[in-house]
Specification:
Helix content is 59%, strand content 15%. The chain contains 18 helices and ten strands. The chain has a six-stranded mixed beta barrel. Helix 3 (28-58) packs across helix 16 (364-401). The longest helix has 44 residues, at 306-349. It is elongated, with a radius of gyration of 35 Å.
C-alpha cells in the first residue's frame, strides 16, 4: 500500500470513527452472519467428532448379534399353533459363534459376551456394577487398551482362573491410593485377582443412548470360561431349571408373558468383525440364515450393523448442518446487502464532502478506494466481533443443549475471509456511485 492508498485508508477509518453508531448498525448483519456460520460449523464438527468416537466405541466393521424376544406369528389353525409351540431354540450360545467362524471366511474376530449385574466389594466399599465374561478379541474389536498390567493369559482362559481386568473408574473408586495390580476384589461370591487396568474411555450420554452401550469404565472383565464355570451358564439344565419348569407346568396361573421372561440365552451379545466394510451386508444375511437354521426358525435374536446406523445418523446430521449453514449464509448475504444500502445512503449524505475532495485534487480512484476501504473495514470489524460472538455462542449451545461443539481454526478463517470479501463486493457499487459525482454540482449540494 503506497502513501496515497494509505491516506485513503485513514480517511475511511476517520469516517467510521465519526459515525460509530451508524457503522455498528451497518455491520450487524455481518456480525450475526459470521457468528451463525462459526456456531453452525462448530456444531457440525462436533457431530462428526461424536460419530467418530461412537465408531471407536463399537469398533470398526462390526456386526452385533443380541438376544431378542421370540417373534411369533398368529395363525388361525390349531394344529399349526401346536407345531409352532413345539419348536425348540437353544438361544444365543457359543455354538453359534463357532458355526459363524467356520462358515464366514470374512470374519476376522468373534467376541462372545456374558454380562451379569453383581456387587463389587473391596476395603469396606461396596458398589453394584457389570461383570463381563469375554475373550481377548473383545478388547481388539472395541479398541480398548491397557493402562497398566497385562491381558488374559492362555492358561487363565483355558482353565477359567479367578482373574480380572478392571475399568479405570473401578480403579479410581476402589484403589485411589494404591496399585490395584495383584490385589483381589470380590465380585459377587468370588474373589478375583486384578491383572490389568483399562484406559479410560470418554462416553457421552448421547453415545450411550444411540448405541445402547454402558459406561465401560465401571465394568470388570473376566475370561469367558471363568464366567461359565464360576458364575452362570444358562445353557446348562440344572435341578433349579427342572423344578422351575415343573412348577410352571403345574401352575396354570402363570401366563405366557412371565414364561417368556426367563433368559435361555447363554450369551448376551456376539460381535463379529468383518474384514471388509463392503462385505458387511452380505455377511449379515449369511449370519441371519445360519442363525435361523440353528435356532429352528425361531427368531429369538437380532442382528445390527452399528457402523451403518452411525453413517445414516451422520448423513442426517450433515443435511441438518447444511440447512443451518445455508441459513447462516443468507444472514451474511443480508448483511452484505445492508452494508451496500447504508453506504449508498451515506453517499447521498456526503455529496458535499465528495465534491470538496474532488475539487482539491482527489481522483475518482481515490473516492472509490475511500468507500471500498470503509465498507471492508465495517465488514472486517463486524467479522471479528462475529467471531468472538460465534465462539461464545458455541460454548453456550454446548452447555445448555448438551450438544458437542468443536471450533476449528478453519471455520474462523473462512468466516473472516467471507466477511472481508462481502465488504469488498458490496462496497464497490456505493464507491462507484460516489466517484461519479460531478464536483461542481456536489459543491452546490445542500
Amino acid at each position: 500500500m503506497n502513501r496515497r492508498n494509505f491516506q485513503n485508508f485513514l480517511i475511511a477509518l476517520e469516517a467510521i470513527r465519526v459515525n460509530k453508531l451508524r457503522s455498528m448498525l451497518t455491520g450487524l448483519g455481518i456480525i450475526f452472519g459470521v457468528a451463525a456460520v462459526i456456531a453452525m460449523m462448530a456444531i457440525g464438527h462436533g457431530a462428526k467428532q461424536e460419530i467418530l468416537e461412537q465408531i471407536k466405541l463399537v469398533g470398526v466393521n462390526n456386526i452385533v448379534i443380541a438376544p431378542a424376544k421370540e417373534q411369533k406369528e398368529d395363525r388361525s389353525g390349531t394344529k399349526e399353533k401346536e407345531n409352532e409351540q413345539k419348536r425348540f431354540t437353544p438361544g444365543l450360545n457359543l455354538k453359534d459363534a463357532e458355526s459363524i467362524g467356520e462358515v464366514l471366511d470374512c470374519a476376522e474376530k468373534i467376541s462372545p459376551e456374558i454380562v451379569i449385574e453383581t456387587n463389587f466389594v473391596y476395603g469396606g466399599l461396596r458398589r453394584s456394577g457389570k461383570l463381563v465374561g469375554t475373550v481377548p478379541e473383545y478388547f481388539d474389536i472395541t479398541n480398548f487398551s491397557l493402562f497398566e498390567g497385562k491381558g488374559f493369559m492362555e492358561k487363565q482362559l483355558r482353565y477359567g482362573e479367578q482373574v480380572c481386568i478392571i475399568g479405570k473408574s473401578i480403579m479410581t473408586r476402589f484403589f485411589p491410593k494404591e496399585d490395584p495390580l495383584g490385589k483381589y476384589i470380590k465380585c459377587g461370591k468370588e474373589w478375583l485377582q486384578i491383572v490389568g487396568v483399562l484406559n479410560e474411555r470418554t462416553i457421552t450420554v448421547n453415545s450411550m443412548s444411540n448405541l445402547g452401550i454402558r459406561d465401560y469404565n465401571m465394568d470388570i472383565y473376566v475370561p469367558l470360561r471363568t464366567m461359565l464355570l464360576r458364575y452362570t451358564n444358562r445353557s446348562l439344565v440344572t435341578k433349579a431349571n427342572m423344578e422351575a419348569s415343573q412348577s410352571s407346568m403345574g401352575d396354570d396361573s402363570e401366563d405366557d408373558s412371565k414364561k417368556s421372561e426367563r433368559n435361555i440365552h447363554q450369551l448376551d451379545r456376539l460381535v463379529i468383525r468383518v474384514s471388509n466394510s463392503d462385505l458387511m451386508q452380505p455377511a449379515a444375511e449369511i449370519i441371519s440364515r445360519l442363525m435361523n437354521r440353528r435356532h429352528n426358525g425361531v427368531t429369538d435374536f437380532e442382528i445390527s450393523i452399528p457402523e451403518l446406523l452411525l453413517k445414516q445418523q451422520q448423513r442426517t446430521k450433515d443435511i441438518f448442518n447444511l440447512v443451518l449453514g445455508f441459513i447462516a449464509g443468507i444472514s451474511l448475504l443480508v448483511g452484505g446487502i445492508g452494508i451496500m444500502n447504508i453506504m449508498l445512503a451515506s453517499v447521498l449524505e456526503r455529496i458535499k464532502e465528495i465534491g470538496i475532495r474532488l475539487s482539491i485534487g482527489a481522483t475518482k480512484r481515490d473516492i472509490i478506494e475511500q468507500f471500498v476501504f470503509e465498507a471492508m473495514l465495517i465488514s472486517i470489524g463486524g467479522g471479528l466481533i462475529g467471531i468472538v460472538l460465534g465462539i461464545l455462542l458455541s460454548y453456550i449451545i454446548s452447555g445448555l443443549a448438551g450438544i458437542t461443539t468443536l471450533i476449528s481454526g478453519g471455520s474462523i478463517a473462512l468466516s473472516f475471509a467471507v466477511a472481508a470479501v462481502t465488504g469488498l463486493i458490496f462496497g464497490i457499487a456505493p464507491a462507484r456511485r460516489a466517484a461519479q459525482q460531478d464536483p461542481i454540482n456536489s459543491l452546490r449540494y445542500e
